[in-house]
Design brief:
Layout lengths: L11 H9 L11 H11 L4 H16 L4 E4 L2 E4 L1 H24 L59
Antiparallel strand pairs: 1-2
Helix pairs in contact: 1-2, 1-3, 2-3, 3-4
Length: 160
Amino acid sequence: MTFSYEAPGADPISTIRFLAGDADETEVFLQDEEIEWLIDTWSSKGDYYVASRAADAIASKLAREISVTSEGQSLNLDTLMEKFQRLSQSLLDQYRELLASGATVYVGGIDAGEQPDPGVTSPAFGTKMHDNREAGNQDYGDAGDVLDTWEAGQWGEYVP
């Protein structure tokens, strides 16, 4: 098992170590091989996501630690696990922020350069479409099927 760290951006392992807080060679949480496995597994998601998984792996290693109190002294190693869990969540939030920063909202019909699809017939909405209230909801089809039997002055009246 090996440990290597140069600087963030120098190589993928160093970047993940920097982001996950595992850059101190005197207290190593993850070996290079473990980080390489995380990179191989999650590389399509980016460095912040891989570092979040690395912080989770560190927290899972620290889950077995216990708090000890002896002769008035206490050592709370479970708080270290909680710190790495919070770091993992923070890195995951940063990953989501980076993911959303390149997103654009698309609302159909708003884009000035968008052209209508010539293969789709536009709906036939117009006056007198819902004038026959006694017939209930009507589906008049496309514009070619509309028959106008209404005359002036009959607005709102039922014509059989």
